[in-house]
Design goal:
Two copies of one chain form a homodimer.
Chain A (H helix, E strand, L loop, with lengths): L15 H6 L8 H6 L5 H11 L4 E2 L2 H6 L14 E3 L4 H14 L3 E4 L16 E4 L6 E5 L4 E4 L5 H9 L3 E2 L12 H7 L6 H4 L6 E7 L5 E5 L11 H5 L8 E8 L1 E2 L3 E9 L2 H13 L6 E6 H11 L9 E9 L1 H17 L4 E4 L3 H12 L1 H6 L4 E4 L9 H15 L2 E7 L4 E8 L4 H20 L18 H5 L1 H14 L14
Amino acid sequence: MQINTSLKTLDISYYQYTIQDNDLPFGIGITNFFGGPVIAKSLRQAFEAIVGPDHVMTAPEDLATYAYDAAPLESVLPQAVLMPESSEELGRIIKLCHENRLPITVRGAGTNLSGGTIPDADGVVILTALLNRILEVNETDMYAVVQPGVITAQLVTKVEAKGLFYPPDPGSQAVSTLGGNVMENAGGLRGLKYGVTRDYVMGLSFFDAMGNHIHTGSRTVKCATGYNITQLMVGSEGTLGVLDEIVLKLIPYPAHRKSIISMFKTIEDASETVAGIIAGRIVPATLEIMDQFTIRAVEAFSKAGLPVDAGALLLIEVDGHPAQVEEDAARVLDLCEKYGAYQTQTAENDAQREKIWAARRSALSALAKLKPTLVLEDATVPRSRIPDMVKGLGEIARKHGLDIGTFGHAGDGNLHPTILTDRRDKTEWLRVEKAIEDIFAHALSLGGTLSGEHGIGIAKSAFLENEIGRASVEFSKRLKRALDPSNILNPGKITGD
Amino acid sequence: MQINTSLKTLDISYYQYTIQDNDLPFGIGITNFFGGPVIAKSLRQAFEAIVGPDHVMTAPEDLATYAYDAAPLESVLPQAVLMPESSEELGRIIKLCHENRLPITVRGAGTNLSGGTIPDADGVVILTALLNRILEVNETDMYAVVQPGVITAQLVTKVEAKGLFYPPDPGSQAVSTLGGNVMENAGGLRGLKYGVTRDYVMGLSFFDAMGNHIHTGSRTVKCATGYNITQLMVGSEGTLGVLDEIVLKLIPYPAHRKSIISMFKTIEDASETVAGIIAGRIVPATLEIMDQFTIRAVEAFSKAGLPVDAGALLLIEVDGHPAQVEEDAARVLDLCEKYGAYQTQTAENDAQREKIWAARRSALSALAKLKPTLVLEDATVPRSRIPDMVKGLGEIARKHGLDIGTFGHAGDGNLHPTILTDRRDKTEWLRVEKAIEDIFAHALSLGGTLSGEHGIGIAKSAFLENEIGRASVEFSKRLKRALDPSNILNPGKITGD
């Protein structure tokens, strides 16, 4: 049995590149593929006793479906795929895995871009698809309680109907799950003003590696009770526990918003404008950049009417009190002009506004159409260093003879340099790997970080020490060993053990 | 040698109750007091080799000065008090303590209200007084880098001069240190709109229990690199590491603000008004409540012209864009009237505004004048349950025949029920202990938490399991044991080991 949360069965443009590019995911050997499940019959029966036979999948096509995620990495077939329907079933699964030392990889929608949901060959995948209830939306105290499998956009829609706002908006929000968002500390377009997922997680309940049920945090705005295990879990990529309930902070929906599109001859001008807006102490809800390469790909894909001759675009939204919005918008327009925009337009209505953001949201899918393999990076720098980062990316592309499209959340220093390549071309792939190393090194040299919002996963674990140092990696390993002594929780992610 | 950060030597009204009430701190036995230091000579010399003889204190009067904090708990004399002047000295101290299994309690200003800075009898106190430099204020990227001994108010003043805002404002901010604020996850009056200390900590560097130097977090707005050790450290009360550098997020200073004082016949009416303002989706910067008992104490102390016949006051500040401020203020005035305020005044100028907030800030000192011992609690409930909490506190006071003044941050559900007593009266003290237990139980029954902002320390560690459960306490202990295997970092705090 398959369920509609795999990359394969979702018909959403965001993922088309993955599906188109690989008829079969990387690394699935013929032997494995036709050899059938190797999980012991007794173990399979024990899982079936917990979740029912329909919710234990071991058929080759099912295992293949959950062997990879949105990162361009080798696939790994798990032993079985499990779909618990309740916290109680989830807890029993974890206990059984603990007793049998079976590695566990929990998977929401598999939109992970750093390999965090690629399973262990000896382990199981737990799908959260059936743990998908919004348990409470508390309008007075402004929080929601959800199960991990709730789709991000579903919560957003539900709380908006009550005049409330859940700001984190990862690009994958139409399909990504809140459990995945929490475990990856997902970002999005609104990080600049509203922060990221971690800023909205008030409390959690989860099962630890032994199957103990842990409750952390609170439904109160303030909480100084005990260790901040809630925030330790956020961004831990499934390596410290398995979520079954999440308490999320909500805020009042902004009264007003205004979207602006500004066109520049060069990406340098656009990035100087970003620095100018930040220096002007304006805090837009969103401040996105798109280079010419990306503009042309998006326009070919979406026919949104983007200016294909522009060297770069800024897409800006300000929100809040109407008077504040008008003032901020006017100042943004002035700054765009001052820094060399040759044209700036304000969306006059919701349809125009929606058109701007639909174009932005299609950037990844559009780029993915151009070549078989897409590598989406998210190295991030202090906001004022955006011009330096943009310049560096151009040099790295030239040095390695690669196509690198650049777009992303310029307002919070979080660019998405996107390398278009074909992984089957071994020579070019080596150059891609060198370019990725150069991107990381350049971001770190500017006081930045390896990952703004995609996490470390498998993809960046070898680079972790470059940023945080040997002692901090050792500290992290000690933490992981203490909380998961048998190393069954999503092994190999973050610290690469 | 003594330095000006001890409770004894500071002439600040906030602490007068501690100083007045106890000629000698609790629990200092005559034998210890005159017995002199018992620290081994070789160890003393080793510390002197690191920080110099002037920065190692072992005289009885020095040990006594750092034997207690602002919580009404038994004092404990440490073996020595050390004052490092640099990160390097700090790291060498930690290594020496590690090698000798010497417990370490780090102390900022000792304003802790849960016993978090009460040392171990076998250990040393490390003062952060000389680690007091603001290392960087980055105006463009809006962050500050500070050493842990910087006084909170000094940073606030420094960044305000640059048009920037560091919002966390614990009541003790005039003397408290940022290192202490981080380790206690200090709250304050602005939690409702602006959050608490943890919401402003972007990165840290610290020494772990073995003296390894650990770097976490980033200077970027977004960071999804590795475990969220930064936030694990926030609120860990000195039990997981010793800070030497803190990166704090800053935001633009609010353009405008308006303060309102509203008078009610009963505290029930005032607390219903709080719930009404929250339900109206208004987010004031500050929304404080004060009962009649507290009003009268404050007026006797401060002569601020407060209405001593009012059953309760609300003190409200709205800030932001001027148009937003005017609208919010008008809506707040309407709501106060609707819920039964008999008089509401808006501060017409800075002097009037300052008068309101000076009165509020003197509440603790004013109450402390009334009786020898003051117990300040901070059990916190979801915002909408404030009326239920206020009602419960009245019942608890009557049941145990105690004076309980109530004031605090009603807008974020964080009340400060304050019990006035005399700890030398054993019979009454037993009733006080029962009342504290009832306050905790009532807050938890309303979906609240033991501590909104004061931490667990020693004072509440016995109650921790009531809130988070046995499994979560065990999880916390595993974490602590892994990161501090010899249990030398502020032993006994939080989990009570």
